[in-house]
Amino acid sequence: MIALSINGKKYQVDVAPDTPILWVLRDHLGFTGTKYGCGIALCGACTVHLNGNPVRACVTPVSAVAGQKITTIEGLSSKVGRAVQTAWEKLEVVQCGYCQSGQIMSAVALLSSNKKPSDEDIDSAMAANLCRCATYQRIRAAIHEAAKHLA
């Protein structure tokens, strides 16, 4: 059994230690907001926070996160998380929506450490999150919008 802390709650899972946390979240615990995209940490759709830092759940083994604080899109309840989600809705960022939970998780991580990011800061922080619908301009605008409410 592996002990996990997800969105402030404790869980015990009986899985192989090398199982990616993505599959534990989705298949064993029902946190389906975290998406599978590429399986090799290139697209960012599976981004979750580990102790506040964005990580790719598709390549992170569950044994590496035991006892650490995991936050999924379902668990975003911080002021920063609410500001980002509100900006996403206000600016209608989502097109197909598939990548958006990963985009939001990366945006929250950025704004948690940098309340006034420049375009370059945003582009750098978001570079590893791919959007097939190319909503990058709306994503950047939403991050700036969220930052205004955090100042």
Number of domains as seen in the coordinates: 2
Q: Which sheet architecture does the biggest sheet show?
A: 5 strands, mixed
Radius of gyration: 15 Å
Count of extended strands: 5
What is the CATH T-level topology of the largest domain?
Answer: Ubiquitin-like (UB roll)
* N/C terminus separation: 43 Å
The number of distinct helices, counting runs of at least 4 residues, comes to 5
- Calculate the mean pLDDT score and round it: 97
Could you name the ranges where pLDDT drops below 50 across 5 or more consecutive residues?
none
**What structural category characterises the helix and strand content?**
alpha+beta
Helix content: 25-40%
Topology diagram in text:
Blueprint: E1 2-6, E2 9-13, H1 21-28, E3 47-50, E4 53-56, E5 69-71, H2 79-90, H3 100-113, H4 119-126, H5 136-148
Parallel strand pairs: 1-5
Antiparallel strand pairs: 1-2, 3-4, 3-5
Description:
- Strands 2-1-5-3-4 form a 5-stranded mixed beta sheet, with helices on both faces.
- A hairpin with a 2-residue loop joins strand 3 and strand 4.
- It has helices at 21-28, 79-90, 100-113, 119-126, 136-148, and strands at 2-6, 9-13, 47-50, 53-56, 69-71.
- Helix 2 (79-90) packs across helix 3 and helix 2 packs across helix 5.
- It contains 5 helices and 5 strands; from the N terminus they run ββαβββαααα.
- It has 2 domains: 2-75, Ubiquitin-like (UB roll) (Roll); 79-148, DNA polymerase, domain 1.
